[in-house]
């Protein structure tokens, strides 16, 4: 990554953080470089969204997105090449490369002067640019697809639904099933290669999930 352009490093870091956290774009936009908002801990990094951030109507004073903890790849894989896809490693490179350039405390900045904070729409556009080569069919790729595939991959790998909801900041399983899981089942084969780990072959759903088809809005 030492020779990567700032634009490429920015998009790679954004994508890896988005995949590893399964957070929506507004939460990614709220990530900050303010003191104690990014803390490198043993074997991972903890990121705290700006406390003034309320990303959607379901984020009220009684339900706010929690911290994001992302483990290093080396805690899960001993394959040397896998470190290229480590979000923690990419984040360290990105912070180091932007330290003297940034004019904003927003984590993700435009990779050209005056290096202003990237907007939510810009983050969405970057994510779409990254995943577009891995999508197929007539449907247009969306930034939300990253969130859906990341969460669904965790589900198919056997991660409990409760843990997925907590990590991705969903209040109930209904939105996940109705708005993300169904679409992901169709798009998974084409897009799965863009995720750090492909889903396992077992498509059975753990118990406790509500039926799909809900009218809940994402």
Fold and architecture overview:
With 218 residues, the chain is mainly alpha-helical. Helix content is 39%, strand content 6%. The protein has a domain at 6-132. It has seven helices and three strands; from the N terminus they run ααβββααααα. The protein has a three-stranded antiparallel beta sheet, covered by helices on one side. It is globular. It starts with 5 loop residues before the first helix and ends in a 27-residue tail after the last helix. This is Tyr recombinase domain-containing protein.
Topology (elements, then pairings):
Elements lengths: L5 H16 L3 H5 L8 E4 L2 E4 L20 E4 L15 H12 L21 H12 L12 H13 L4 H8 L4 H19 L27
Antiparallel strand pairs: 1-2, 2-3
Helix pairs in contact: 1-3, 1-4, 1-5, 5-7
Question: How would you summarize what this structure contains?
Answer:
The protein has seven helices and three strands, in the order H-H-E-E-E-H-H-H-H-H.
- Helix residue percentage: 25-40%
Portion in beta strands: 5-15%
Enumerate how many helices there are, as a single number: 7
Q: Segments where pLDDT lies below 50 for 5+ residues?
A: 187-194, 196-218
The chain-level structural class is mainly alpha
End-to-end Cα distance, whole Å, is 35 Å
Q: Could you state the order of secondary-structure elements as H and E?
A: HHEEEHHHHH
Overall body shape: globular
